[in-house]
Design brief:
Elements: E1 3-7, E2 11-12, E3 18-25, E4 35-41, E5 48-54, E6 59-61, E7 69-74, E8 79-84, E9 93-100, E10 112-113, E11 118-121
Parallel strand pairs: 2-11
Antiparallel strand pairs: 1-3, 3-8, 4-5, 4-9, 5-6, 7-8, 9-10, 9-11
Length: about 120
């Protein structure tokens, strides 16, 4: 059973960079055909796919967030990391890491999810 756990600060100041790490257990982030993603949900809104990194290290980003988003991985630690720069209060959301055996931008396509920490943007 794959398990994902997010970690990182729950409070980020405006204009700074939000950084979250997802630690994976019960499976490898290099497993062929698997994609590892970040999805967020702002208060009162739906799930928003932010981007993903594949089993081979290829990255994919939402066009609306591409200029501010970076996803990387550390295979030795079986982790992948989200960085979102120049945050504003519009970036307040619950941030989830998730995985799927196919490439999809649909949240419903992801099989395994972390618990999702709330991230607040405030000075």
């Amino acid at each position: 059973q794959v398990q994902l756990q997010e970690s990182g600060p729950g409070l980020v100041k405006p204009s700074q960079t939000l950084s979250l790490t997802c630690t994976v257990s019960g499976g490898s982030i290099t497993t062929t055909s698997y994609y590892w993603t970040w999805i967020r949900q702002p208060p009162g809104k739906g799930l928003e796919w932010m981007g993903a990194i594949s089993y081979s290290g290829s990255t994919y980003y939402s066009p609306s967030l591409k200029s501010r988003t970076s996803i990387s991985r550390d295979t030795s630690k079986n982790q992948f990391t989200l960085k979102l720069s120049s945050v504003t209060p519009e970036d307040i959301a619950v941030y989830y890491c998730a995985s799927a055996g196919i490439y999809t931008t649909l949240a419903a396509g992801y099989d395994y999810w972390g618990q999702g920490p709330q991230v607040t943007v405030s000075s």
